[in-house]
């Protein structure tokens, strides 16, 4: 697959509305898998939705893209600044649909996201990855991301 076969298209309001429940369900489930209680995971979901999608639409300054392979919807990439200074940006979410995995699409989307962040004045790009997500951790390490913070837990 050529790099030109993968592109990032800004999501329309309708696409955001369809994507949001799916993405937030996945986020909430991942929080539970990482050790949050159901209540904690639901609260984290609500906080994210209130901060970034208060009216069901993404707030100004955040960028949510559909990852396309040809005309196919292969996933999504959401990135944006942490604050109004805009120097530190975050990859808030990256998802590649199962039927498109293991084809280098996430890697290409990440590289395109890095360029978008640079174009918007970012000098640092950060992300969070759940400890159980070995595949994502390997991808991010291969792209040059280093551990900036490490949360550890032990069930009692």
Brief sketch in words of this structure:
The chain is an alpha+beta fold. The protein contains four helices and five strands, in the order E-H-H-E-E-E-H-E-H. This is N-acetyltransferase domain-containing protein.
Could you give the topology of this structure?
Layout: E1 6-10, H1 13-33, H2 38-52, E2 63-69, E3 72-81, E4 88-96, H3 105-119, E5 124-127, H4 134-142
Parallel strand pairs: 4-5
Antiparallel strand pairs: 1-2, 2-3, 3-4
Helix pairs in contact: 1-2
How would you describe the overall organization of this protein?
The chain has four helices and five strands, in the order E-H-H-E-E-E-H-E-H. The longest helix has 21 residues, at 13-33. By secondary structure, the protein is of the alpha+beta class. It has one domain (9-142): Aminopeptidase, CATH 3.40.630. The chain has a five-stranded mixed beta sheet with strand order 1-2-3-4-5, sandwiched between helices.
């Amino acid at each position: 697959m050529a790099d030109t076969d993968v592109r990032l298209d800004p999501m329309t309001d309708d696409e955001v509305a369809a994507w949001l429940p799916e993405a937030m369900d996945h986020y909430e489930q991942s929080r539970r898998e990482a050790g949050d209680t159901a209540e904690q995971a639901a609260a984290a979901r609500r906080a994210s939705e209130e901060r970034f999608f208060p009216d069901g639409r993404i707030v100004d300054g955040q960028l949510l893209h559909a990852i396309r392979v040809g005309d196919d919807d292969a996933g999504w990439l959401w990135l944006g600044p942490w604050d109004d200074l805009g120097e530190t940006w975050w990859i808030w979410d990256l998802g590649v649909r199962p039927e498109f995995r293991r084809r280098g699409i996430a890697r290409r989307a990440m590289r395109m996201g890095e360029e978008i962040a640079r174009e918007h004045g970012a000098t640092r790009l950060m992300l969070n990855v759940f400890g159980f997500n070995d595949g994502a951790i390997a991808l991010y390490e291969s792209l040059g991301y280093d551990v900036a913070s490490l949360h550890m837990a032990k069930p009692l």
